[in-house]
Design brief:
It is a single chain. It is built from four helices and no strands.
Amino acid sequence: MGTITIKKIAKLANVSPGTVDRIIHNRGRVSQENIDKVEALIKKHGYVKNIFASNLVLNKKFKFAVVILQ
């Protein structure tokens, strides 16, 4: 099936992607029935939050330094 996404979980659970997002990030009011469905699908399909995508949404700038010792 490939990588599971929030949109795919939402479709399988018959809820909106926003509802899945609220459940994953523990925000907003969501019915316990939807929480149970979404959490079961997350566990079944092994959904893992993509931290790189999350950081892009935050629009933060990061600086990386590289030290090369010779």
